[in-house]
Amino acid sequence: MTSGERSATRRRRERMVELLGAGDISVHDLAAEFDVSLSTVRRDLATLAALGRITRTYGGAVDHRAVERSWHDKEHEQRGEKDAIARAAAALVRSGDVVLLDAGTTVARLAHELRDRGDLTVVTNGLSTLVELADAEVEVVVLGGRLRRPNESLLGTRTEQALRRLTPDIAFLGVDGLDPRRGINCPDPEQAALKETMAECARAAWVLADHSKLGGGGGFPYWAPMPAGTGLISGGGERELAAFTDAGWSVHSAAVSPGDGAEGAPLHTS
Question: Which of 169, 217, 220, 247 counts the highest number of beta carbons within 10 A?
Answer without folding.
Answer: 220
